[in-house]
Specification:
It comes from Ructibacterium gallinarum. This protein is mainly α. It has 16 helices and no strands. α2 packs parallel to α16 (327-361). The longest helix is centred in the first third of the chain and has 35 residues, at 24-58.
Length: 362
């Protein structure tokens, strides 16, 4: 099996090199567009969440959540309370912040490998900025359909978490010692901030590298019947744009978009692999979770469209280019996301407190 993957990778690299020699202008243009996408969208929308995730863990918020939310998170998803960090960040930020948070929780000793694998199965999701903005408004020109996609996407992710809550054996896997035990300087807020920014910058460099690489690879693909589906499997942004140009009925086209959106493409898979594999985690639970997530998203989107059809049955697919948010919009989105993050954590904490009160009165 290892020889098969090495051979496949070698063939892909040879194809990419040949395409760059045959069509250097097209590949260079694709690389430039990908770099601009990273600078204007990917980095501003993901970098703050990478920093926040690392800071929450290093400053002890994970310990507090683990004590407060275990009664809620463990019965539902089979993870400690600190797993709420990865779940909420995965819902409001985007790929691959949820996976990075799960890996950080494991390497810092706040969860076992089995629990980290359970988190990976459902906490790495697409964010509202991409689904509602880029896909809903930019590609579909229909905010209602974007809302349906996002609701089915997140609901299917939570359902996947419930299904995977018993993944693996609940054995005592020795976790790594907490970061504070091996690095006392992390207790200092300034040191924690510097460490968080450095780790986030390293992660962003990997993410942007994969974005550029797969943008060039996708640009080198030949056009043939069904190539839209191959494109969607490789890279989600351009793949969805290409998929939406196919003459399929909306009742089938939107569920397909939801399925590919949940799978996220090989590009996001490689981004996630670059984060979780160095942490000592496996990609198998993540891949299996994405498979289940995609199937559930397809079913939920189909049902929502069937019972709640779009109020505007005619809309121009891919007629509107994907908008690039400005600095003001991204700043507002970051503030709103942080507010929603705090509200979500507060609701979970309140629910855990109510559970505790209920148990004491029993």
């Amino acid at each position: 099996m290892e020889r098969f993957w090495k051979t496949t990778l070698l063939l892909c690299l040879l194809y990419l090199a040949s395409a760059m020699i045959i069509n250097p202008i097209g590949c260079t243009a694709a690389a430039k567009d990908a770099v601009r996408l990273c600078l204007e969208v990917v980095i501003p929308s993901l970098f703050p969440f990478f920093v926040c995730s690392s800071l929450f863990i290093s400053l002890g918020a994970a310990n507090v959540l683990s004590r407060r939310l275990s009664r809620l998170m463990r019965p539902l998803f089979g993870v400690p309370g600190c797993g709420a960090l990865a779940v909420v960040l995965g819902v409001i930020s985007g790929y691959p912040v949820g996976a990075a948070c799960a890996a950080d929780l494991y390497t810092s000793g706040h969860c076992t490998k089995t629990e980290a694998h359970r988190l990976l199965a459902f906490c790495n999701n697409s964010g509202p900025l991409f689904v509602l903005g880029a896909v809903g408004i930019g590609m579909l020109g229909n905010q209602y359909l974007g809302t349906i996609l996002y609701l089915s996407h997140i609901t299917a992710a939570l359902m996947t978490g419930l299904l995977f809550s018993r993944l693996g054996k609940n054995v005592s896997i020795p976790a790594l010692p907490p970061a504070s035990a091996s690095a006392p300087s992390v207790k200092n807020a300034a040191a924690a901030l510097g460490t968080a920014v450095g780790n986030a910058a390293d992660t962003m460099l990997k993410v942007c590298g994969f974005v550029v690489l797969f943008a060039v690879f996708a640009a080198a693909l030949p056009s043939y019947p069904g190539s839209q589906f191959v494109y969607a499997c490789l890279e989600i942004t351009g793949g969805l744009r290409s998929l939406l140009s196919t003459p399929l009925p909306v009742l089938l086209l939107l569920p397909l978009c939801a399925m590919f959106l949940s799978f996220s493409g090989v590009s996001v898979l490689m981004q996630t692999a670059g984060i979780v594999l160095p942490a000592g985690l496996s990609l198998r639970p993540y891949l299996l979770g994405k498979l289940v997530h995609g199937i559930l998203s397809f079913i939920l989107t189909f049902l929502l469209l069937y019972f709640f059809p779009a109020p505007q049955p005619t809309f121009a697919l891919t007629a509107v280019p994907v908008p690039v948010p400005g600095t003001k919009e991204l700043f507002v989105f970051a503030l709103v996301s942080i507010a929603w993050y705090a509200i979500a954590i507060g609701i979970l904490a309140l629910a855990a407190w109510l559970f505790d009160r209920f148990d004491k009165h029993k």
